[in-house]
Amino acid sequence: MTIKTYQSYNFPFELKKEIVDFLFTHLEQFGDSKEVITKALNYIVDKGGHLVLCLEKEEITGVAVINHTHMDSYIPENILVYLATDLNRRRTGIGTLIMKEVLDVCRGNILLRIDAHNPAIKLYEKFGFTNPYLEMVLKR
């Protein structure tokens, strides 16, 4: 397996549709629409962040999308928007490899939002993520 990291200057535009489709499929019920996923990828190019891909023989087996918040004075500098691994390759270490790369490339604190029933919580806790706050949202 190969881990590749991209930012705005080397973003793999030729893989963008494949990345969107991968995230849409493999995030399952914890994911977003393709339009929203595309916005998160565009944010990397426009405002900053990282894209981490895990590849096996040029096939995508895992993806992480991190956006820079530019708000480091009052919320974490980075938000881990998505992390997904291939449904057929779960529990094979891909998520761990991706998280190690995320922690290596991100400067500053990292925030993530995760559904309370998402089994990936254990992976994030293994890397030191905690839940010190309760998030509340007013939907309009």
From TrEMBL:
GO terms for molecular function: acyltransferase activity, transferring groups other than amino-acyl groups. Residues 1-140 form the N-acetyltransferase domain. Keywords: Transferase. InterPro entries: Acyl_CoA_acyltransferase, GNAT_dom. Gene3D superfamilies: 3.40.630.30. Coiled coil: none annotated. Pfam families: Acetyltransf_7. This is N-acetyltransferase. It comes from Paenimyroides tangerinum. The lineage of its organism: Bacteria, Pseudomonadati, Bacteroidota, Flavobacteriia, Flavobacteriales.
